[in-house]
Amino acid sequence: MKFTDGYWLTRPTLTPLYAVEVDDIRIDETAGTMTVYAPTAVIRDRGDTLNRPMLTVVFSSPAPGVVKVRVVHHAGAVHRGPDFDVRGQDGFRPQLSVDGREGVLTSGSLRVRVARSGGWHVDFESDGRVLTSSLPRSVGHMTGIGASGAGVQSADREPTWVHQQLSIEPGERIYGLGERFGAFVKNGQTVDAWNADGGTSSEQAYKNVPFYVSSRGYGVFVDHPENVSFEVGSEVNSRVQFSVAGESLDYYVIDGPTPKDVLRRFTGLTGRPARVPAWSFGLWLTTSFTASYDEDTVSAFVDGMAERDIPLSVFHYDCFWMREYQWTDFEWDSRAFHDPTGQITRMHERGVRVSVWINPYIAQRSALFDEAAARGYLLRRTDGSVWQWDMWQAGMGLVDFTNPDAAAWYVDKLQHLLDQGVDTFKTDFGERVPVEGIVWHDGSDPQRMHNYYAKLYNEVVFGALERHRGAGDAVVFARSATAGSQQFPVHWGGDSDSTFLSMAESLRGGLSLAMSGFGYWSHDIGGFEGTPDAGLFKRWVAFGLLSSHSRLHGSSSVRVPWAFDGEAVEITRRFANLKMRLMPYLTAVAEQAHTEGIPMMRPLVLEFPDDRSGFDADTQYMLGDALMVAPVFRADGSVEYYLPEGQWSSLLDGTVTDGRRWRTETHGYDSLPLRVRPGTVLPWGAVDTRPDYEWADGVTLRCFALPDGYDRVTVVPGFEGADTTFRVRRTGDVITATSADARAPWALQVADRRAEASGAGELSLSIEEATR
């Protein structure tokens, strides 16, 4: 929120306190802390210390390259939780020093300098370079003013806030803050980190993450699950301000030096994305939301995909697999599904997994409502009654996952479905969580629980799947999230319109989420609301099947390709086959998401942090480190995109173009800019009908614009962690490849020699045989 009236004045309803200078700095080597005592006015003599508030700022470090800052006004406030699970490095302590000039905390490459004289000034440095600074009027405490117009102390329960401002340099860009569908670069925006079901066409977000990344190679994580208000150069043009209600503020400054390094450190603190099963990367098809369907309809959809040779990995049953007014009761609607267990078995026999829709609400007509209410498993009001409302379904209550018994009860209901053969769940909702007049089982603060509930909900469901299926074979399709939720993938972009504009805003949301520590992301191919025309559907199919995860889904109309035209069938088949061929490459990219926290879909600034021309690019992305994807967002097929330096080859037609410039092209429905990074050795799978095959069998190494000398590439990492590494050497127009792993010898044969001596173009090496 904004506290000032222009640069000089404070808004008339507020009374400010700012850290003005440093009175004292004390270090505690055992605790690893540096505590700074900051009066809120200049102290000229002893008399000035009377009736004078003070702010206390404590610096510490949980891990190398990370500094925690805690700003406190009154330390006696009640803290009820919940809290993000922030994991430091066991036993780590920063280096601390203080002298007459400054206090210094050093954590790996990151250093904090607090000036002891002059006005308030704190620098965060990395390798001698100042990343950002806390300057005068940056650290503040605000108190609301009562009806009389006079300042009232916070002890009288007037609202209070604590804020911090960190400087941003000219040309610096700020990214992240969760899945936000507005401008990808957050400079100039006001962002409230408050989960809401607002669709993709508003300033609201399903997934709020109070974390941002700077183009200068550092990040800031505000450690508060309640509403965090960000002013990104929108209150003071040269600063990012973040504020929370209350008497204290906790945040972390995270060093790079690159944005990728920032994400590695951030996900090291808050959790890395789980490994997901190979089958989840295939095409998902749903019944759509309110479109009429039954067992015969589902069978016809699956049969139709097979008859048209379109690979299908997962079929999803949306809400009405359960009877209306009874969501969620976990029971199949017997009017439409007479033999659900048998149908699931038949799906599995055809190689298709099954997903079903769930949410955390229990409707009053559900047979489970009375049971859950009687046992205290539903959220209660302060008067002891069950919290209910009529939005979504009549008389719905909300499962209280802070109650371990309620969580176990919910999992028991899921287990029945898992025993029937259900493979995964679409965990919808989790955003509309009340904060007024309610009491959580564990006494959590309702404001802090509002966003945090999304993590609890998806953690419970993901944990049930993982226990049933095993680590690496569990996946959900989740909509709501906050910091830490990246551990429970996959997440999709929510309710978009069936328009080109909404298709583009969906991508912006995915790119922002990628810069927030989330490794995988999907969206509704064709858009959710409305019915796309055939042209839009075909463009969205290409985008969707070149995303981390791919799902055809709509609201009142179906998304089977033949509902549009014959070419839509061909386009869906073409790009589904392409994604299957890319599986040896995509699994390596997915493994990096799991082990390092680097997302599969990457904004250009993440992959090319030294190329300023890509800092604002928000209509394209890197799929891993090797493939550039630029979806077509215009009906006429025109597309503008940027290529960094080098010779970039089209994966679709083999043409080569020079980078370091913006390009404008026009593409048919069967094409889009899909460029291969120069110097890439791309493993090309031999199977195009499913994602979960033996990727090493018959794989081809496709070499693009290799330079002279050695280029090392990991071809198939394997989910067990066993890497197969090749050395690829180019001399003139001859390429040889040898395995660097004696445990995994590969017989290689040159399949095609179309590369020129300059290194442009493509040359393929096919692997005839592989043993481990």
Walk me through this protein's architecture:
The protein is of the alpha+beta class and 772 residues long. Among the domains are: 11-78 and 90-167 and 241-255, Immunoglobulin-like (Sandwich), CATH 2.60.40.1760; 601-676, Immunoglobulin-like (Sandwich), CATH 2.60.40.1180; 696-770, no CATH class. The chain has 11 helices and 47 strands. Strand 17 (211-214) and strand 18 form a beta hairpin. Helix 5 runs parallel beside helix 6 and helix 8 (534-544) runs parallel beside helix 9. The radius of gyration is 27 Å and the shape is globular.
Strand order of the largest sheet: 4-5-6-7-21-18-17-15
Shape: globular
The helix content, as a percent range, equals 10-25%
Distance from N terminus to C terminus (CA atoms, Å) equals: 59 Å
The fraction of residues in strands falls at 25-35%
CATH topology of the domain at 11-78 and 90-167 and 241-255: Immunoglobulin-like
Provide a count of the helices.
11
Alpha-beta content class:
alpha+beta
Task: Give the CATH superfamily of the domain at 11-78 and 90-167 and 241-255.
Answer: glycosyl hydrolase (family 31)
Q: Any low-confidence stretches, pLDDT <50, length ≥5?
A: 147-155, 716-722, 739-760, 768-772
Radius of gyration: 27 Å
Strand tally, please? 47
What is the CATH class designation of the domain at 11-78 and 90-167 and 241-255? Mainly Beta
Architecture (CATH level 2) name of the domain at 11-78 and 90-167 and 241-255: Sandwich
Overall mean confidence score, pLDDT: 92
Taking the sheet with the most strands, its summary is: 8 strands, antiparallel
